[in-house]
Amino acid sequence: MTEDTPDSLIPYDEIVQEALRAVVGRVLGEIVRGGSELPGNHHFYITFKTGATGVSIPDHLRERFPDEMTIVLQNKFWDLEVRDDGFTVGLSFNQIPAKLEIPFAAITAFVDPAVDFGLQFQASVSDLEHEEHDLAENDAELGSDTAESAIGEEPDDSDGSNVVTVDFGRKK
Length: 172
Prior knowledge:
Elements lengths: L11 H22 L10 E6 L9 H6 L3 E6 L4 E5 L3 E8 L2 E8 L3 E6 L4 E4 L23 H6 L12 E4 L7
Parallel strand pairs: 7-8
Antiparallel strand pairs: 1-2, 1-6, 3-4, 4-5, 6-7
């Protein structure tokens, strides 16, 4: 594509990201149907935005991970339930059990290192809950370009793995 390519009136990036997030749901659903046992050496790293709408985690985890958190589903997890819009799972953190509720829209990465498979997603500004704060002297209204560029860093996919990165929103 060139710089002269017009903006699409069809939200391709949203459609593709929604479809790829459905892959995460299907994989987790297969685990539930299989008795919540991971086959072979499969295990998952799931990274999500802790401040996204619908995320429910204990306060001590939200304080420790105010922006983003990665969980590992491998040996010790329980009560995995998968819905159309997300999943819940029980995990231990420093031997303290916790139940997490994570919408698929909050996920920014899904990796299964056993087979060198990964997906990365862009978080949408609208997916994040607004936190109230006092205005600073240098606070100004953010334009959509500024807000979008403040979302995060470009993923590093130079390791040759099977990571699929979807990034329609930024011109290269």
